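seq as requested:
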Amino acid sequence: LPYLERDADLANHFFKDLDLVFYAGAALPQHLWERLERLCLKCRQKRLPIVSGWGATETAPMVTIGHFFTHRSGIIGLPGP
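struct tokens:
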């Protein structure tokens, strides 16, 4: 994030064709979520979905998925299809 925040050309290129940001394995800290949203709004003038998947590595790669807009990290979502 520091590189994207310092370099407008890099940030514009990074967000240009991005459809979503996905994280899994651990909760994304709220302050990083907010920085990503700010950068995306600055580059694209709209929010980018930040989605998460949760599951046990030993049993399934994804049990739940947060595939909807929310304003905070840590939402475990709904059961996957």
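The longest helix spans residues 30-44.
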